[in-house]
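USER:
Make up one protein:

ASSISTANT:
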Amino acid sequence: SRQKGFDADQRIVISSIGTEDFDFSKFRTFKKSIQGHASIINVTAAWSLPGFYTPGGSVFSRSESPEERVHLSHNVVDYDFIKTLGLSLATGREFTEDRMTSEKVVMLNETAVKALGYSNPEEAIEKVISYHWKVADYAKLKIIGVVKDFNSRSPGMPVRPEIFMFSNTVWQYGQYYYFIAHVSPGQHQETVAFLE
């Protein structure tokens, strides 16, 4: 429901689509093959979804303060994650195919913005944070968007600070476990049959 910060209505979820050697080219072909169906509004994919929470996290810091590290839950997501799930941006932009480059960019939720010490979402945009994995300063990541907080776990549990990374760019083991389609009202059964 919208009270949780996301919209679950008219969404179809397919689970167990990813592995450690997930072939992203095959996924792109599959995604393009269904996007033209009349009942499908948007499609995306992710490591974790609200109601299908997959634990995972890493250590990050503001680049200017590498000693002040915080643990953020991480999610690996595809293009149009925000739009497809009916989430809201506090500021900035999400990952869209027409704007992606080789630059390593991420989105944060509002709780992660606070955890990293930024005074508000606008201050975080275009800032660079450090990703500490195996080595002290594994990657530099630019913040392009801040997602309004939503509950990815059970209702009533506190919202965790979360970072959203684009597939297979920032985290080399990035993969998808879930495929999500937003379908037109009244077209749910027809779309399920089409996807099968």
